[in-house]
Amino acid sequence: MRITAIILTHNESLHIARAIRSIQPFVDQICVVDSGSTDGTTDIAAQLGAEIHTHPFVNQARQFQWALDTLPIRGDWILRLDADELIEPDLAHEIATRLPTLPADVVGVNLKRKHIFMDRWVRHGGRYPLVMLRLWRHGHGRIEDRWMDEHAVVWGGRTVVFEGGFADHNLKDLGYFVQKHNQYATREAIEVLNQRLGLFSRREALTARNTSWRVAAKRWAKERVYNRIPFTLSAASYFAWRYLFQLGFLDGRSGLVYHFLQGYWYRFLVGARVMELERAVAHLSDKSAICAELSRLTGHKLVAQSAPATDLDVRDEQLAPRH
């Protein structure tokens, strides 16, 4: 079973060598898709044997889907890995030994991701395990077309879970964490407004069958419940749930920093950003005009559109399991 790994990069010289070395024991092809790094990221990756491809960045979902649609993928399986993530040796061994033995009806593998913050594993607050579909058979998966919180989905079979170590360990400082989440807040606000206003197509793709059931349940709870509660209440309630009821306080001082910033400050920021953008377009009724104004305010190019059937929709319908 050959495996092709795809890693998206932009100025990831601090992480890229670690990520590549963690997968070299079991991966046959490594494709790095770079969007204009200036810090030597691509030189490091090339020296370690990765194939380098460049493509302008719009968002994570479209960048990765471009890779799936365009690159000369040789693997029977595809591994999605972020540059600041790494596969630990026990999971590398599990993939190498278990993957060839999986029956033909298994088309996806969920991995249990751990988050390392300030060099400490965040074990509580609902942050472990984060079960994510990151490995799938070539031709049986795609990435959701979303501005934020995009996931891989598969068709034509079932998924299984591997138990080995899979870590998200960003080595940059707290300033980068804040800056990154500020950018995430704008992208997530776009998703919330699209959900409310129907500006462009949203493909409701996640189910317990085509991805991790935890991811599907979390998406349902966020969009059907959380996003309908005033953010001044929902952000505080979510932090209390994570920190108290899900035992986030057991993660110590660094855990308090993480749970507060990611579980309260970030959620509050998303809500405030939604309120700001919603007010800015309240006087507009035409979807094209709304998208144009949101594009100006966010710096992201948004285009109003309907949701006609696409080739992917047709393929998904043809390959979807029948009951």
Description:
The chain has 323 residues and is α/β, with parallel strands linked by helices. It folds into two domains: 3-169, Alpha-Beta Complex (Spore Coat Polysaccharide Biosynthesis Protein SpsA, Chain A), CATH 3.90.550.10; 174-319, no CATH class. 42% of the residues lie in helices and 19% in strands. It is built from ten helices and twelve strands. It has helices at residues 16-23, 41-47, 60-70, 89-98, 174-197, 213-224, 231-245, 252-280, 287-298, 311-319, and strands spanning 3-9, 29-34, 51-54, 77-80, 85-87, 106-117, 120-122, 130-137, 141-143, 152-154, 158-161, 166-169. The strands form two sheets. Strands 1, 2, 3, 4, 5, 6, 7, 8, 11 and 12 form a ten-stranded mixed beta sheet that branches. Strands 9-10 form a two-stranded antiparallel ribbon. A hairpin with an 8-residue loop joins strand 9 (141-143) and strand 10. The protein is globular.
